[in-house]
User: Which sequence fits this backbone?
């Protein structure tokens, strides 16, 4: 029997087909952003009892309709906000030996600024005309101030940054002890709690 | 003399394109894997602001998206003021509780407390409308929010 060789299939147009598909996916791809600044809104229940907070423990940040920044009654540039917030949070104004003394603070210990990081509250107020971009920038700087302090503290205690610890905690493949890590993270969070309050629309 | 005859034809040989399909397929597979089909068709401009202290939103199925921005070119008849978009439709601030409740109803009950609201707001929108939305979210007790941003420095961008 005569063997007949099967004719070779011409694959020349395979590239064309692949290109067609490629171009389709190129056009339809939108790289979705799925990261952002997480926040928690305060619950609605209005408690009538006013909590008295000392003025020196509040760091007021005002954003007006022209995107200008008023920090503690002084005009400030956005780039200086992070340092100012860090200085305020890390002040630790209560003198040594008294209750509430902050042993890990490295601030100026100015008695006229915040007592300790637990008492220190940042209050952010914005106007209806404030642009969202500026608002996010301010939020970002304030969150950055907290994160930098937490990173520094974590570096002192455990030799790694807070961001690394959180990344490890969320990583399923991380080999270490997660319960211990959780404890460490909680400890840092207690030492530098994020107390950022927002004032509703100042008209 | 024939020993020294020039090789016939001086022209360059054709480039072998046999590996071209392989390269194209490689690219194709990358894009096929990386593509996430959009759930909503955007009717608004949505140029997100930049921030660098961002956290990743995990569990995509537990996220409710609220888009805010100016109506885009094709929807000019809706004006130039920033508007809210929920699920392919322009919406009013008062529609938000219904939207949240509908989203909650579509999820299993034990997952409801983990629902996060992602606010995808255009950089040029102003805080008035965002504040109103936040107020509505507080009313329906949807307190976990995420300001979705692009990753990058907040300075030097306009």
Assistant:
């Amino acid at each position: 029997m005569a063997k007949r060789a099967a004719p070779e299939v011409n694959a020349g147009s395979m590239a064309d087909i692949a290109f067609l598909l490629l171009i389709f996916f190129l056009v339809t791809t939108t790289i979705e952003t799925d990261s952002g600044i997480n926040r928690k809104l305060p619950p609605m229940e209005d408690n009538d009892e006013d909590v008295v907070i000392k003025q020196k423990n509040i760091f007021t940040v005002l954003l007006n309709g022209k995107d200008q920044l008023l920090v503690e009654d002084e005009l400030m540039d956005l780039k200086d906000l992070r340092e100012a917030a860090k200085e305020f949070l890390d002040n630790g104004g209560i003198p040594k030996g008294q209750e509430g003394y902050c042993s890990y603070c490295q601030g100026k210990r100015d008695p006229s600024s915040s007592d300790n990081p637990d008492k220190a509250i940042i209050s952010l107020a914005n106007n209806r005309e404030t642009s969202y971009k500026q608002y996010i920038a301010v939020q970002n700087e304030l969150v950055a101030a907290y994160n930098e302090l937490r990173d520094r503290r974590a570096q002192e205690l455990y030799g790694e940054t807070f961001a690394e610890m959180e990344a490890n905690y969320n990583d399923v493949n991380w080999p270490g002890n997660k319960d211990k890590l959780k404890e460490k993270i909680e400890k840092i969070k207690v030492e530098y709690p994020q107390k950022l309050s927002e004032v509703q629309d100042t008209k | 003399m024939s020993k020294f005859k020039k090789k016939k034809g001086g022209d360059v040989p054709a480039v072998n394109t046999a590996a071209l399909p392989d390269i194209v397929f490689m690219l194709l597979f990358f894009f096929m894997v990386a593509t996430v089909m959009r759930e909503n068709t955007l009717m608004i401009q949505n140029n997100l602001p930049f921030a660098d202290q961002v956290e990743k939103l995990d569990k995509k199925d537990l996220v409710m998206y609220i888009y805010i921005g100016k109506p885009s070119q094709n929807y000019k008849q809706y004006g130039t003021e920033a508007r809210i978009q929920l699920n392919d439709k322009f919406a009013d601030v008062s529609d938000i509780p219904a939207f949240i409740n509908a989203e909650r109803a579509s999820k299993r009950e034990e997952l409801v407390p983990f629902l996060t609201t992602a606010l995808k707001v255009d950089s040029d929108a102003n805080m008035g409308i965002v504040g109103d939305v936040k107020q509505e979210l507080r009313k329906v007790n949807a307190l976990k929010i995420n300001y979705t941003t692009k990753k990058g420095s907040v300075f030097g961008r306009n």
Observations:
- Chain B has three helices and eight strands.
- Chain B has a mean pLDDT of 83.
